[in-house]
Amino acid sequence: MHPNHAFGDAGERGRNVDPPEDQGEPSQATHRANQAAGVEERLLEPSYITLAEFHRIAMRRPVTTDAAEVLRQIGTLEKPLPRFCPSMPQRPWKSLAFVAFESVLLAVAAAFGGPAWTGMMVLALLVEVSAGSQLAGLAWLVPALGWLAPAVLTANRELFFPYSMAVAAFMACRLRQRSFRGAAGTAAAGVLAFLGIRLAQQATWQVLATEAMVAGGILLMIVGSCRWLPERPWQTGLVMAVASGLAYAGLAL
Questions:
Q1: Which of 41, 103, 118, 230 has the fewest CB neighbours in a 10 Å radius?
Q2: What's the CA gap between 140 and 169, in Å, rounded?
Q3: Is the pTM of this model over 0.90?
């Protein structure tokens, strides 16, 4: 017999071999392995995963070695990528600038105003830290601290009153975005802190009663402003100016 006929017969026999009987569905491990193998080939295609998508997965999703799971996570990225990842720390210069700014405010209040002015400034800084530690918010304390200049030049200790009311208004406005009740409670705490300091300064009961009545009216104005005025950047400055102006006018009583 010619050799080619032998190979031909073998080829025919190979083609005529019946397929193996179905032995049931493949196991779960085999299915996952086949799926992962197919996914890995897709991962090798150029530009299949962008750098932004990989960064988002690495920072926000749990670490996984399953290629199928990686593609599943990529498929769920429907929202646009934010400008920065919240899990990453912000630029350090903003934190350093905030710490430097509040240190300057505390130093000025302590050097020229003494413990009373420093105490109110500490309360304001604590509120600003709880409100988000923003330089724009901290800047509103500069005009409030401006009452320190005429107080030092004229040696008028009564100007501590408009300064304290401006600080109380600042505290309420900064916490207004989180909670109206928190803003009202913070303003009341600022007024009580002022009255406590005046009591420690051994103010007369007549003066203390007058300041308490004026401060109570200013507190109602601050709470009403936080309730009815729109949330705008100018709202903080307006309420602070009105509060300190009413306190200054109340000094004539």
A1: 230
A2: 11
A3: no
